[in-house]
Amino acid sequence: MAKPYYEFFCPVKVIAGHAALEHIPFELATLGAARPMIITDKGVRSNNLLTPIEAAFESTDAVIGCIFDDVPPDSSLETVRKAAQLYRDNNCDAIIAVGGGSVIDTSKATNILVSEGGDDLLKYSGAHNLPKPLKPFFVIPTTSGTGSEVTMVAVVSDNQKNVKMPFASYYLMPHAAILDPRMTQTLPPHLTAMTAMDAMTHAVEAYTCLAANPISDAYATAAIKKISASLFNVLDNPTDANGRLELAQASTMAGIAFSNSMVGLVHSLGHSLGAVAHLPHGLCMNLFLPYVLEYNKETNSDKLADLLLPLAGPDIYAQTPAHLRADKAISTIQTMRDRIYALTKLPRTLRETGKVTEVQFEEIAEKALNDGSIIYNPKEATLQDLKSILEKAW
Q1: Low-confidence ranges of the chain (pLDDT < 50)
Q2: N or C: which end of the chain has fewer CB within 10 A?
Q3: What is residue 136's predicted lDDT score, i.e. its pLDDT?
Q4: Which pLDDT belongs to residue 1?
């Protein structure tokens, strides 16, 4: 059934395939840019992932103006200012982000400074505080998880005040996302699995939470199907280019889904666990996903039941009686996590992380209760409810 009212927006051009990188100079030219700055991190550079990008510029009029590879795992205002200064010093006219979530966030924030001028990023923090479009901006993801290449959000740490500054604006959306399997082929198995479960959670929550709409549902279920079909092939054979491309597309599709329909309690708990125990976001998603679905089941078992089809395929879906499909969908995710654990040792429980104690449950639950994502969860949660989910995930 169609919702009485919803909005769907994704202006990001997606350029995907086995030679997607070669199209970058042409795409820049269509936006009037010929001197891009690349923003990346040391890991991406040392893995030689910039080599095919640099090669794509060799026979063209465009040149790479400079490369900033000093992005830390958790980006900061200082990093953004340094990147903006390098951009100005080299007379660049566009930004290409090559990396994961932190690199993409840094690049979005850098684009604010180089487009608006000055060094004061804080006056643009919050929602919709950018007055006009920014410089041409492309994203080349090197992980298949965050979906940041199609979202309007960036988060940058203010290390002075020890807080994370959120930025949200339609102008932060990249002009293009470039998905090329060469960029994720060196991703180690545990990171491949962790980022895939991040994308899986984006898709599952986009489909099962309150702001879901028919168009986001289509993206979400397609993403779930791709991850279910390709993740274990890629873990068994990391250089499987087709499988890598499938996971990259799934991550982008999940990003389009959740940026239009929001996420829920898995993210509220994940954000707060990440803040308290400093664990990676994708790992937090993997830890909480089945336990939150179990908690929500009495409210949205019909939507959970739908997910059995993309998760397990038509045969298992058809063989499972309708009233058991929601439980079967949750157990399929549990089985997936067990297989991932056997292959990569990616923790399934809080205890397995070795970084969390039961003493922290109160603080994690309180932070989760105040996290914005909780608003879209299909079932209301009290502090006690959150603590009982934490105990189940222990």
Answers
A1: none
A2: N
A3: 97
A4: 56
CA-nearest of 199, 245, 194, 196 to 219 is: 199
Q: What is the pLDDT of residues 208-229, one digit of tens each?
A: 999 999 999 999 999 999 999 9
